[in-house]
Amino acid sequence: LDRDGRIHQAMLPDCMFLTGWNLLNVTLLLYIAIFLPVRTAWEQDFGCNWDLIHFDLFIDLYFIADIGVNFVTGYKHFGKYQTNRLQAFLHYAKSWFLFDAVISVPTTWISFFLGLLCTTNASFLPAVKLLRLIRLVRVVRVVKMFNLPIFQRVRPNPFVFQLCKLVLLCVFIMHLAACAWWFVKTSDDDYARWIAERDLISVGTQYMSSLYFVC
User: Which residues pair with 82 in a beta bridge?
Assistant: First the structure.
């Protein structure tokens, strides 16, 4: 602290605040990875749900705020934490900042101000879905999350850890493929008849059917 009581040190990556902040980060990334493809593929079932829209608006604000938090977060250099705020600022600016800035573009807020969130105009729907899918790129931040202190403390045998990451990647790819398959299937002319023949009424049965076809 200086004479005015101002803090000149960056936060330690394993402090209580950042531990909670990063746990929220991981939770939101899991939500994006699991639920966003489903909402895009089953657009007609979710419709204009303002509870989900408000949550999406919150997620956009969180990832913008996360950039600010990263600027004042220390980093490990040769086994020691660097907590000088200027060094932390420059380190983040030269490493993850550009990537984080690109994937933190508030697409939901853009759609909101352009009046595209609940549009029924078919000509605008592809743009809405594209803006939504752009957010899926945020899942790449999981790679960054694996290097956080909270995960390093519970990291098992390196072989087991790499195997778990591979399994999770395979599951995620299968999930994306199933959602993409249903998204394409809904554009078929015999879509309604195909659903009726197989009694695929709920989103759950439709998803399992999609997963069956892609596997």
Answer: 75
Do the beta carbons of residue 30 and residue 169 sit within 8 Å?
A: no
**Distance of alpha carbon 7 from alpha carbon 81, whole angstroms:** 17
Is 142 within 8 Å of 32 (Cβ atoms)?
Answer: no
Residue pair 88/108 in contact by the 8 Å Cβ criterion: no
- Name the strand (E) or helix (H) holding 50: helix 50-71
| Secondary element (H or E) of residue 94 | helix 85-94
Q: Has residue 5 got a pLDDT over 50?
A: no
For residue 97 the two structure tokens come to 């900042």
**Which tokens belong to 64?**
């913008």
Cα(166)–Cα(148) distance, integer angstroms: 19
Residues 42 and 186: their CA atoms lie apart, in Å, by 9
Task: List, for residues 97-144, the tens digit of each pLDDT value.
Answer: 998 898 888 888 888 887 777 766 656 666 666 777 777 778 777 766
Determine how many CB atoms are found less than 10 A away from the CB of residue 18. Answer: 21
Joined together, the tokens standing for residue 38 give 């489903």
Confirm if 52 and 46 have CB atoms less than 8 A apart. yes
Q: What is the pTM of this model?
A: 0.79
For the stretch 162-203, pLDDT in tens is: 788 889 889 999 999 999 888 888 777 777 777 877 788 788
pLDDT of 4 reads: 46
| First CA to last CA distance, the chain | 59
